[in-house]
Amino acid sequence: NGDGSYRIVTKYNGDVLDVTNYSTTSPANVIRHPWHGGDNQRWYFEPANKTIKNNAVVTVNSNYNRQWAANYAKTYGPNPNSDYKYFGSDGGDCTNFVSQCIYAGTMPMVPSDAVWGITSKTDEKNWFYLPGVLDALDWYTTTFTSASRFNKHWGQENMRAYQTIEYASGAKALEDIDFLVWYLKKGDVIQIKQSDGVSFLHSMIICDDNVSCDGNHKGEPNTCHNKNKKEIIYAQHSDNFNNGHLRAVLKIYENSPFIFTKIKKDV
Q1: Range 11-16 contact pairs with CB under 8 angstroms and sequence separation of 24 or more
Q2: What are phi and psi of 163, to 5 degrees?
Q3: Measured between alpha carbons, how far is 120 from 108 in angstroms, rounded to an integer?
Q4: What are the Cα distances from residue 171, in Å, to 28, 141, 168, 217, 232?
Q5: What Å distances lie between residue 121 and 69, 90, 144, 150, 188, CA to CA?
Q6: C-alpha 192: how far from its chain's center?
Q7: How many CA atoms lie within 13 A of 50 on its CB side?
């Protein structure tokens, strides 16, 4: 259909597979019906090359404001917010920046009543950043600043996000690119693992979706060969920018596993 979806057509008379009453959610009946182009007639094929984990609560994080998270990412991607410590020269600021964006999107810190210097910084169920008291050092969790610990809080055992999708490599994710550029939204998180599939390399956050590739990954002319294709744009630290292209980074890290964290369900 030109948007990554397919219509499933009967050989009998040209009718298509249709979900009754224009529904796009379960449970619902499937029937044969003339094509009218509705979402309930558009089907997506997903290669069996990924691992998906879902939160048991489908409505989790329903108040997450994707636009606010994206606005923060666009604003502070190139120029870090001075209200937070910058880790660019101390192991990288990527996850600290992603956490800031999610917090700007109204995701509450956990626990909401964390106490500076007392509440555990290493408990994977905690996720907070408290500024220093009387100019003392800031008090923040490892889940706020570490890529692997962030993943353990928002995915894996704690599963605070709605869903995580993991691909064995960037190349495998590229095979599924039509699905990804349709499914991922502003405020969702992209993480790269080391090629060993265990340790984490990087965290990024989506700041724009449903746009066309301009051929300039990270603003560098002619760095993409996907001009005019539908694209996902991400922001990151460090390096600091807000104009990275998903297709390009999947190609660059084609041998490294990727994890996409969908903070809330909206499609």
Answers
A1: 16/41
A2: -160, 150
A3: 17
A4: 35, 33, 8, 18, 16
A5: 24, 18, 9, 12, 24
A6: 11
A7: 24
Contact 245, 232 (CB under 8 A): yes
Digitized pLDDT (tens) for each residue of the chain, 267 residues in all: 988 889 999 998 999 999 999 988 878 899 999 999 999 999 988 666 789 999 999 999 999 999 999 999 999 999 999 999 999 866 699 999 999 999 999 999 999 999 999 999 999 999 999 999 877 899 999 999 999 999 999 998 899 999 999 999 999 999 999 999 999 999 999 999 998 888 999 999 999 998 999 999 999 998 888 999 999 999 999 999 999 999 999 999 999 999 999 999 988
- Type of residue at 223: T
Cα 53 to chain center, whole Å?
14
* Residue 171 exposed, middle or buried by CB count within 10 Å (0-12, 13-18, 19+): middle
Which stretches of the chain are DSSP H helices?
Answer: 66-76, 94-104, 142-145, 147-154, 170-175, 177-183, 246-252
Strand ranges across the sheet with 258-262 = 50-54, 163-167, 258-262, 189-193, 200-212, 230-236, 241-245
Whole-prediction pTM:
0.83
Residue 163 is given by DSSP the state E
DSSP letter at 77? T
The answer to whether the beta carbons of residues 158 and 152 sit under 8 Å apart is yes
